[in-house]
Amino acid sequence: MKELAGKRICLLGATGFLGYHVAEVLKKTEADVHEARNRLPKDYSRHNVDLTCSNATNGFFDCWGPFDYVVNLSGLSSNLQLNSERPADLFGQNTLM
Predict the structure, then answer these.
(1) Does an H or E element contain 81, and which?
(2) pLDDT single digits (tens) 23-63
């Protein structure tokens, strides 16, 4: 993936199953990868941001952008009971991201 060398990439949803594995692949490139996650950051390239809040999301991009690529793998996940009890709430929150 030499075409990614030197590119700035924003990975949204880096703590999810798919996001985690994409992050692992991107770490092997020479890209400048910034992971936006919903958990506390572990180093300078990982950022804690609430993607359901437009002010927080805009602040993240104002502070750390611009990016050459944005990969959006974000979404709220839950157990089956919550999915069956509040499907509209989860759909609405995921739509905001």
Answers:
(1) helix 80-85
(2) 889 988 889 988 877 655 455 456 777 777 889 888 889 98
Structure tokens that stand for 3 in this block:
């075409």
What is the rounded distance in angstroms from the CA atom of residue 2 to the CA atom of residue 25?
12
Q: Which of 54, 14, 62 is nearest to 34 (CA)?
A: 14
CA distances from 74 to 1, 32, 33, 64, 91 (A): 23, 19, 16, 18, 12
User: What DSSP element (H or E) covers 17?
Assistant: helix 17-27
3-state secondary structure of 2: helix
Could you tell me the pTM of the whole model?
A: 0.70
